[in-house]
């Protein structure tokens, strides 16, 4: 049993309300929102006003993934815009500033999370685990939807699952990138609780069946 968080990145940006209604109608659990700044990743996508606009048209949890440099500067604005989960990358600032970002997110009543790029070892998340409600393991290089799943990230998930069992058993594990019905089973077997899916979800002809397949 897993949760599915379709990414609005693969929706039609001229009609995000329709995209979010499609996600809700499919029976999906959360909406994943990919925020990119053109510095931390080589792409620019969604900002604070768009998160606030999405908040107005859905009651589903908004899982906001910040792929931005020095996120401490912006976490308050994204929390106030309506994020339910707010994820920052461990590579995006110093340990001290990432810890401060997680504290600020929690103080605003939002669930804090950290994410790891494919080249970043599991151990890089260890200083943050006690403060996290979720850890996100990237299974593609962040920046773009529609890339191939990196199965070699599965040991990282297993390492994090084992460590979380010791230090923060309630913390959720999420995977993001290249997830479809073929790659979802190994993610779940490796300990993932939440599966982000962008292009595969919006490509699926029968979205309800696709969602059920990922959730089971
Ligand atoms: C990549 C984003 C992902 C992406 C997933 O930087 O973080 O959330 O939208 O899209 P797919 O499922 O197409 O890999
Ligand atoms: Zn993402």
> Which ligands does the model contain, each kind named once?
D-xylitol-5-phosphate, zinc ion
Mean pLDDT: 98
With strands numbered from the N-terminus, the spatial order across the biggest sheet is 1-8-7-6-5-4-3-2
Q: Which regions contain 5 or more consecutive residues with pLDDT less than 50?
A: none
The helix-strand sequence is EHEHEHEHEEHEHEHH
Q: Tell me, briefly, the overall form.
A: globular
Given helix and strand content, the structural type is: alpha/beta
Main beta sheet: 8 strands, parallel
Helix content, binned percent: 25-40%
Number of strands: 8
Q: Radius of gyration from the CA trace?
A: 16 Å
Percent of residues in β-strands:
15-25%
Please count the helical segments.
8
Q: Separation of termini? A: 5 Å
Could you walk me through the main structural features you see in this protein, from its secondary elements to its overall organization?
By secondary structure, this protein is α/β, with parallel strands linked by helices. Helix content is 34%, strand content 19%. The protein has 8 helices and 8 strands; from the N terminus they run βαβαβαβαββαβαβαα. Helix 2 (48-56) packs parallel to helix 3 (75-81). The longest helix has 14 residues, at 154-167. The chain starts with a strand and ends with a helix. The structure holds D-xylitol-5-phosphate and zinc ion (ZN). Zinc ion (ZN) binds next to strand 2. D-xylitol-5-phosphate is lined by residues 7, 9-10, 32, 34, 65, 140, 142-143, 145-147, 176-179, 196-200.
């Amino acid at each position: 049993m897993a949760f599915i968080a379709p990414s609005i990145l693969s929706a039609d940006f001229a009609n995000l309300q329709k995209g979010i209604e499609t996600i809700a109608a499919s029976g999906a659990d959360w909406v994943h929102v990919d925020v990119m700044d053109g510095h931390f990743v080589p792409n620019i996508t969604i900002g604070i006003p768009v998160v606030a606009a999405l908040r107005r048209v859905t009651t589903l949890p908004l899982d906001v993934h910040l792929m931005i440099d020095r996120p401490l500067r912006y976490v308050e604005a994204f929390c106030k815009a309506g994020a339910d989960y707010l994820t920052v990358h461990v590579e995006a600032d110093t340990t001290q500033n990432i810890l401060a970002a997680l504290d600020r997110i929690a103080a605003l009543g939002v669930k804090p999370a950290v994410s790891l790029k494919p080249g970043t070892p599991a151990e890089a998340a260890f200083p943050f685990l006690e403060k996290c409600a979720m850890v996100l393991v990237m299974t593609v290089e962040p920046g773009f939807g529609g890339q191939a799943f990196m199965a070699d990230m599965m040991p990282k998930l297993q390492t994090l699952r084992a460590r979380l069992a010791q230090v923060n058993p309630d913390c959720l594990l999420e995977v993001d990138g290249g997830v479809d019905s073929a790659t979802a089973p190994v993610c779940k077997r490796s300990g993932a609780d939440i599966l982000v899916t962008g292009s595969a979800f919006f490509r699926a002809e029968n979205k309800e069946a696709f969602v059920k397949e990922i959730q089971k």
